[in-house]
């Protein structure tokens, strides 16, 4: 277990290089990183598309969300990260 005061630089690339050794294949690393980023992007895109489709077909849910957001975030400003904790 790491102590809180220990500074550790951890990354996927570090572990990849350690696992494959100094003579690792840079193309394999690039391909693997591309797969990871692509998978994350595709998952987020799929979720957003489904959320929009579901909201478009359920107007009452849209209205409830709009009301809740308006009750927390003043219409004269953009939302900020601290607003998230006040949304149910």
Question: Outline of this structure?
Answer:
This protein is mainly alpha-helical. The chain has helices at residues 12-20, 26-57, 59-72.
Explain what this protein looks like in three dimensions:
- This protein is an all-alpha fold and 88 residues long.
- The chain has two domains: 46 residues; 30 residues, no CATH class.
- Helix content is 62%, strand content 0%.
- It contains three helices and no strands.
- The longest helix is centred in the middle third of the chain and has 32 residues.
- It starts with 11 loop residues before the first helix and ends in a 16-residue tail after the last helix.
- The mean pLDDT is 88.
Query: Average pLDDT, to the nearest integer?
Result: 88
What's the number of helices? 3
What percent of residues adopt helix (DSSP H or I)? 55-70%
For the secondary structure, the number of strands is: 0
Oligomer: single chain
Write down the secondary-structure element order: HHH
Count of separate structural domains: 2
Q: Please tell me how large the radius of gyration is.
A: 21 Å
Binned strand content: under 5%
The helix-and-strand class reads mainly alpha
Shape: elongated
Low-confidence sequence ranges: none
Main sheet, how many strands, which sense, barrel?
none
Question: How far apart are the first and last residues' alpha carbons, in Å?
Answer: 35 Å
């Amino acid at each position: 277990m790491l102590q809180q005061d220990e500074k550790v630089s951890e990354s996927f690339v570090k572990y990849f290089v350690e696992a494959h050794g100094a003579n690792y294949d840079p193309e394999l690393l690039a391909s693997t990183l591309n797969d990871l980023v692509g998978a994350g992007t595709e998952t987020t895109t799929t979720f957003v598309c489904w959320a929009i489709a579901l909201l478009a077909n359920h107007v009452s849910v849209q209205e409830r969300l709009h009301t809740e957001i308006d009750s927390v975030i003043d219409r004269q400003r953009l939302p900020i990260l601290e607003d998230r904790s006040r949304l149910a």
